[in-house]
Write a structure and sequence with these properties.
CATH class of the largest domain: Alpha Beta
Structural class: alpha+beta
Shape: elongated
Number of strands: 27
CATH architecture of the largest domain: 3-Layer(aba) Sandwich
CATH superfamily of the largest domain: DD-peptidase/beta-lactamase superfamily
Strand content: 15-25%
Number of helices: 19
Largest sheet: 7 strands, mixed
């Protein structure tokens, strides 16, 4: 009987195994079942494999832990990017491809009292270049093309065309028609940028009132500067997606805000009166070889200024070519000693205080000594017997001092301040000078005498005109105005507030002084050349010493200020010439300009003659 071999056994050594081949059957001859005997054989080597340290279970758990850690880290990063930093990163990504461009607001226009444009904004084009698109060999030909249309030296354009800049300005503010000429040349690398340009249709007319706009689009002088906030408006913006070259992608939508146009400004200035005044004073400045000249035209009842002319002037369309000193407004910024035109304030004060009247007799000696100072009149004379009216008509300094002594210094000072000397005109114009009159506490021994006849104090041209407007308006001073109103972006017109009214002297005093001023323009006065046929004209000449370097007098300031019709004044005209060298008397130099401007103004505003003969007030006694 055959017995199955026992199962294999593991040897004491873990790397040896025994199989049935390791046993053999031995028949011991007793007839029993054969005896199994183990035969020792050399163990078989184990199969070759990679060596991995550690237990297999531990390795699996390690891999699981590592995978879990990696999963947590990745998940955390995803949460950080999408949840915590998501909005910020999305905004940065959007910003990288989005561009915000400012949309400039349309600057408000400036028009005269009849809506005639004096400053307006028109469409324009900036010429730009992409230097990276212009081959070296094409630079000269492109520059020549630019010069053929824009003018200038082609070599100057070449410098702007060479480089690695994607955007550079070649020329700013050309007209659309000029750009079309460039476009027709098909110049490589040359592009356009839509913009606007400030333009002044009347050129130099009222330039010193309006001012100009700088290259950055902001006001650089005059009302353009003073009303910058109102004229500029509010810029808008547009946000759009850009492509690789910075060009807007047409298929994307843009967002932003619309610009709000600036406020339109209506002035009290009348362009035609302004033009006449500028031309008249320009001719006279040239004739007199004067440093400068100024004309103020205003309505005495409303304070509205019709003209504010000064020469030399400039063209606001070409501010870069202007002389800096000529861009300001001398009518407000330049002060001067008024001289004899100031005497009407002294006369008004004396009459208002009841100390004299036009027929009051005043003996005028050849000279007058006061506190060691000897005063003279402009022409030598013997003893004169003048009425108070004659003192004004003959413009006697000595007679004026004698009249002023009837009221004294403090009273005279009080009236000068009431007339507005040393105070702002209220126009709030950039660069305005207030003028000056010293307080009596600071007067020297000679101050009273000189101030009485118009020296030792200073005024600007508008203040000087305002004094005469006060007398013309029955003694009521109305603050001068330059702004008639503002028109907002929605088209609504808002009238400016009326000038502040303040009584200075009584109606009776004002009308008395007006009658006295008519004698100045008569054959017996100092300015018969200012008379206008058919009209009653009142006015006063002025010839004052001009303050020079170091406080010493050098040259003269010649002036004439008046109004018409004298019995119902509608227009005041003030004419001032600074440092004339061909003559110096105000009546001779400024009188003719007054007559020219006043004659035109009376016709332009259709003011008829009154037909009433002026009163004949004696000049002498």
């Amino acid at each position: 009987m055959t017995t199955l071999a026992p199962p294999p056994r593991r040897s004491a050594r873990s790397d040896e195994r025994y199989t049935d081949d390791d046993y053999r059957y031995v028949d011991d001859g007793h007839g029993d079942a054969p005896r199994v005997t183990r035969t020792r054989r050399a163990p078989r080597p184990a199969q070759t494999r990679l060596f991995i340290p550690g237990h297999a279970g531990r390795r699996i758990r390690a891999w699981q832990m590592l995978s879990l850690v990696l999963l947590v880290v990745v998940a955390g990063r995803v949460v950080q990017l999408q949840v915590i930093q998501g909005p910020e990163l999305a905004a940065k990504a959007l910003k990288a491809v989005m561009t915000t461009k400012e949309l400039p607001a349309q600057r408000g226009s400036i028009v005269d009292r009849n809506a005639v444009p004096l400053a307006t904004t028109v469409a324009a084009v900036n010429v730009t270049a992409d230097q990276t698109l212009i081959p070296r060999g094409k630079v000269k030909s492109v520059a020549r093309g630019l010069a053929s249309v824009l003018g200038g030296d082609p070599r100057a354009y070449e410098q702007r065309l060479v480089g690695d800049r994607r955007f550079v300005y070649v020329e700013k503010g050309i007209s659309p028609a000029t750009w079309q000429k460039l476009l027709d040349l098909q110049l490589v690398g040359i592009f356009s940028e839509s913009t606007t340009k400030r333009t002044y249709p009347a050129g130099p007319v009222a330039a010193n009132v309006i001012g100009f706009v700088r290259g950055d689009g902001k006001g650089g002088g005059g009302l353009e500067y003073g009303l910058q906030d109102q004229l500029a408006g509010t810029p808008g913006s547009t946000v759009f997606q850009r492509g690789a070259k910075g060009i807007a992608i047409p298929t994307t939508t843009s967002t932003g805000t619309d610009p709000i146009a600036g406020t339109n400004v209506t002035l009290t200035i009348d362009r035609d009166v302004q033009w006449v005044a500028q031309n008249a004073i320009a001719e006279r400045v040239k004739f007199a070889h004067a440093d400068s000249g100024t004309v103020v035209v205003m309505n005495p009842k409303t304070g509205q200024i019709y003209a504010l002319a000064t020469v030399p002037t400039f063209d606001p369309n070409k501010p870069a070519e202007a002389v800096q000193a000529d861009t300001g407004n001398r009518a407000l910024s330049q002060v001067f000693e008024p001289g004899s035109t100031s005497k009407i304030m002294t006369m008004a004060a004396v009459i208002e205080e009841g100390k004299a009247n036009p027929l009051t007799k005043i003996t005028v000696p050849p000279t007058l000594s006061r506190h060691g100072k000897v005063f003279h009149d402009h022409d030598k004379h013997g003893t004169l017997h003048l009425t108070l009216n004659g003192v004004l008509a003959k413009s006697s300094n000595i007679g004026t001092i004698l009249a002023a002594e009837r009221i004294g210094g403090p009273t005279l000072y009080r009236y000068l301040k009431k007339f507005g000397i040393g105070s702002s005109t209220g126009l709030q114009f950039p660069g305005e000078s207030r003028g000056y009159v010293p307080d009596p506490a600071h007067w020297s021994n000679t101050s009273f005498g000189t101030i009485a006849f118009g020296q030792g104090l200073s005024v600007n041209a508008v203040q000087a005109a305002s004094v005469y407007a006060t007398i013309a308006n029955d003694g009521v001073k109305v603050s001068p105005t330059l702004i008639a109103g503002l028109t907002s972006a929605d088209g609504q017109f808002h009238a400016a507030a009326a000038g502040k009214a303040e009584r200075v002297v009584s109606v009776s005093t004002a009308r008395t002084v007006r009658s006295m001023l008519e004698s100045v323009v008569s054959a017996e006065g100092t300015a018969p050349m200012a008379a206008i046929a058919g009209y009653r004209v009142a006015g006063k000449t002025g010839t004052a010493n001009r303050a020079g370097v170091g406080g010493h007098y050098q040259g003269y300031t010649s002036s004439f200020i008046g109004f018409a019709p004298a019995d119902n004044p509608s227009v005041v005209v003030a004419v001032i010439l600074d440092n004339p060298r061909n003559g110096h008397y105000g009546g001779v130099l400024a009188g003719p300009v007054f007559k020219q401007v006043m004659t035109y103004s009376l016709e332009h505003f259709r003011i008829p003659p009154t037909g009433v003969t002026r009163p004949d007030i004696p000049v002498t006694w």
